[in-house]
Amino acid sequence: MTKDPYSLPAEEFYARGDSYFLPHISIDCVIFGFHDNQLKVLLLEWKDSLRWSLPGGFILKDEDIDQAATTILLKRTGLEKIHLQQFHTFGDPNRDRKKHGINPPKGSNPKSWIMDRFVTIGYWALVEHSKVTPTPDAFSRSCSWCEISEVPELILDHNLIIEKALESLRLQLNDYPVGFNLLPAKFTMPELQSLYETILAEKLDRRNFQKKILSLGILTRLNERKQGGAHKAPFLYKFDKKKYQKALKQGLSFGI
Amino acid sequence: MTKDPYSLPAEEFYARGDSYFLPHISIDCVIFGFHDNQLKVLLLEWKDSLRWSLPGGFILKDEDIDQAATTILLKRTGLEKIHLQQFHTFGDPNRDRKKHGINPPKGSNPKSWIMDRFVTIGYWALVEHSKVTPTPDAFSRSCSWCEISEVPELILDHNLIIEKALESLRLQLNDYPVGFNLLPAKFTMPELQSLYETILAEKLDRRNFQKKILSLGILTRLNERKQGGAHKAPFLYKFDKKKYQKALKQGLSFGI
């Protein structure tokens, strides 16, 4: 057995991939990045059909599903040790390439295991845009960032998967801190607010935001302003890593 | 093909169930009820081995996973039209009955599809205790309520599944209203607080709780006190169904 079935030639992958992977189960990853005040997501453009899809993959017969997701993230971004949040499993019986007119590459078996119905487990990750090297998989000609508001029509239910990932990310904002992987090490309050506004897709009141976010006790204000010089330049902040990690573990308990 | 493969004799179910169901994927349901100020969960006791497990089942080859979960809930409780919350998919490669010394019933094929590794999709539901008729499945001798704090050792990772369901339910309290299916139509503020305290496993301040819960605008105070008579008897409340449904859809936005 080869160690990495993803490196098999397409024809063989389609013919015999199911001797490595669990049948009927896949993983799709919604990889979010934040750049130029925009929330972006990583997409693949397929070689043959020029369709767009989320980065995804399968689960080795003896592999943990979280590990399978970690491998996909690593292969597409070069990033390790990033938190992947499992958010939803998609099990519409129409998740079946045959029903969507998607054919295997020329020369591959049209009755391939990949043409069966798949239940897919969705994960999202928040990554630092500048640290990512978008890398296409064997079936894609490109891998690139796409602004959330400009995502094209994707295969199967991948647009719905992004929608659900965003919903999960928005709810997460209530319960857990967000920003550590998305912002540079030092950032201003307006930058942090802009990140929250982009994820929530709504404008927030500046004073309320500052009050609430400071009350979480996860920020440290530095004795340093953006760019130096002008007195009106905003102060820089950084996350208090210890308190941030604690909040990640325990939740923020905004609620009752 | 029979319409309901769950009604097959055990031997046949073990031998040929995989001609009806997706292989390697199962569903487990954590069904919560609230009774005598206690949070309870529905468990099955197996016929042969007297082990305990969560109610669960499989997914027909052309069935939506949510529908499969709905069928399990109906079969075990008699309840329909209850919201089932998918909360996590469990994919440890050790989720394999062989690795846990669990054997198929006598006379069944020890190499049955059921003895393979399974990835399981977890759902929880909140149901009105008094409306449930706990009903064992074909492999169980009993189906009964068990207090959360008294759950015995369950098969595979089912204890972990309950833990994760509780975690999800607790987070849900921050984002969505809870209580509609758990409490009787009319209830007192102390009863509602007690429900929240039981789910959160912590004592809450009476005045704070009342202030926060009323601020959600989902309750209507009735002009009626518990039991009539004494003036100190607490007022009865009911949920404003329309506002409750809206909050379920939009979230409570306690947060930023």
Give the SSE layout.
The structure is a homodimer of 256-residue chains.
Chain A: H1 10-16, E1 21-35, E2 38-46, E3 52-53, E4 56-60, H2 65-77, E5 84-90, E6 119-127, E7 140-147, H3 158-175, E8 187-188, H4 189-200, H5 206-215, E9 219-225, E10 235-239, H6 241-250
Q: Could you characterize what this model shows?
A:
The structure is a homodimer of 256-residue chains. By secondary structure, the first copy, chain A, is α+β, with helices and mostly antiparallel strands. Chain A is 27% helix and 27% strand. The first copy, chain A, has helices at 10-16, 65-77, 158-175, 189-200, 206-215, 241-250; strands spanning 21-35, 38-46, 52-53, 56-60, 84-90, 119-127, 140-147, 187-188, 219-225, 235-239. In chain A, strands 1, 2, 3, 4, 5, 6 and 7 form a 7-stranded mixed sheet that branches. Chain A is elongated and about 65 Å long. Chain A starts with 9 loop residues before the first helix and ends in a 6-residue tail after the last helix. The mean pLDDT of chain A is 89. Chains A and B meet through strand 1, helix 2, strand 5, helix 3 and helix 5 of A and strand 1, helix 2, strand 5, helix 3 and helix 5 of B.
